[in-house]
Design brief:
The protein has a single domain (2-189), classed as Peroxisomal Thiolase, Chain A, domain 1 (3-Layer(aba) Sandwich). The protein has eight helices and seven strands; from the N terminus they run E-H-H-H-E-H-H-H-E-H-E-E-H-E-E. The protein has helices spanning 19-27, 46-49, 54-67, 84-95, 102-106, 112-121, 136-149, 209-217, and strands at 2-12, 75-78, 127-130, 155-161, 179-197, 223-228, 231-237.
Amino acid sequence: MINFNIARWRAWAPGLETPEQWAAWSTAPSIPPVSEALPDVSFLPAMQRRRLSHTARMAFSVAWPLAEGIDHLPMVFVSRHGETPRTFNILSDLSRSEPLSPTQFSLSVHNAVIGLWSIMRGETSEMTALAASGDGLENGVLEAAAMLNEGAEAVLLVLTEEHPPEAYASWINDVPFPYVVALLLTAGTDWQLSLAPCATDSGRPQWPHPLNLLRLLNGAVSELHHPFRSRTWAWRRRAVQPAP
């Protein structure tokens, strides 16, 4: 069992940007309409914005405001599938015997987002990129809790998934729409995360677990249990959280 606080949070998905929109979604979750809306990264210079994929733009759009004013902020970046659109484009170029872009390749690796984050913010604190399976959120929290236990005043946890190319539809079925959730974690006892054996196989949840956490953050549910394979994660909230 571990304890921690969620000092602040932010989230983004197409058509879901403000706390009010996420609160409404938490009450009646559904797949938002297809939108061409892009995450707002206008705080970055144009040259830097051009280097960001859609995945990186999502991460930066929510993480940057949470990090403002905080020096030496460690980060844990979690994505199960990573840069699938960029990787698919690279594989498509290979299939046509076209030359590969070194830039595209270097930005397709799983730790590219934290690399860009470190460069653009001049941040040299510890950073970790995880590609966990169905309980990436919990693994990210465990990693962040270890950093807090080692003396970090706060840790930025970012979880994001991009909608995969259609060619991956038969293999990737746990991303109903692109989304990102960022949590600023600090030491405390407002939240409790514990692990227990999973008694029964309850099947895949309707929504990715980071989105279910948003429902808990918005008060739509009182507690959260996340079964995955042979284990069940139990989330309990001991105090009302501030608005993001």
